[in-house]
Design goal:
about 240 residues; alpha+beta; Multidrug-efflux Transporter Regulator, Chain: A, Domain 2; 3-stranded antiparallel sheet; 10 helices; 7 strands; elongated
Length: about 240
């Protein structure tokens, strides 16, 4: 059969997003992962970074493979059961290494090598430009990653006490992790809510999420009481 006038084989159709049929079957859009796991942007990319997953772009949209999606699903189930990324990685089987290959048999992808070097340079630049607030946020994230609620159910209270004492600002996903609820439950509380003896006050944004200051009931001013005035004397009636 003669080839079409546009030079493309009829079995290699390209959809409007720029993906051929084979790529569509073996890929998943990154933009749908936040809703899939009910996560904020930064919490999602912390998981991608922890698993070493680097999305690829096609027509300005980012994708991951179905194999990587399966690993993310397994990690999500593991975290829901109280685990951490580190012990999930420790449980994953190590891929076998074929020692029979010599140096001349290892294929080198120049484009991939250049991309890897570029990513490393970009990461070094970003790290050098981090502010003090970013370093503190990383310390909070590290502390939360070490939290083991199954071994010590009171550890989250000590973390909240430390956040209150040091004036740390926590993101919605961090507060949700500590209180063992979904991020959506936290944002539905509005500007202020109380839980576990602490008061959480909305104070703006942190890494693209709603940010919260950890306070205690005694830190907040008492509510104003209405006192009717005596129209004759101009003084409060009590």
């Amino acid at each position: 059969m003669p080839a079409p006038a546009n030079g493309h084989h009829p079995d290699n159709r390209v959809d409007p997003a720029g993906l051929d049929s084979d790529t569509q079957i073996d890929s998943f859009p990154v933009e749908l992962l936040e809703d899939r796991y009910q996560l904020g942007h930064n919490a999602l990319y912390n998981r991608l970074k922890g698993l070493g997953i680097k999305p690829f772009k096609v027509s300005r949209r980012a994708y991951i493979t179905t194999q990587e999606l399966e690993r993310l699903d397994q990690l999500h189930n593991h975290l829901q059961q109280g685990g951490t990324i580190n012990d999930f990685l420790a449980q994953e089987p190590t891929p076998p290494t074929d020692l029979s290959l010599n140096r001349t048999e290892i294929p080198v992808n120049l484009s991939h090598l250049i991309g890897t070097v570029a990513d490393a340079v970009a990461g070094a630049v970003v790290t050098s430009m981090r502010s003090t607030a970013g370093v503190i946020a990383d310390a909070v994230a590290t502390r939360l990653a070490q939290l083991q609620p199954t071994t010590d159910p009171l550890e989250y209270l000590r973390t909240l006490e430390e956040a209150h004492r040091n004036g740390w600002i926590l993101s919605t996903s961090e507060v949700a992790h500590l209180l063992r609820v979904s991020p959506r439950t936290i944002t539905e509380h509005g500007e202020l809510f109380e839980d576990s003896g602490f008061v959480f006050v909305r104070v703006g944004k942190k890494r693209g999420e709603v940010a919260w200051r950890v306070a205690k009931p005694g830190d907040l001013p008492p509510p104003e009481r209405y006192q009717p005035m005596d129209p004759k004397t101009g003084y409060p009636q009590w």
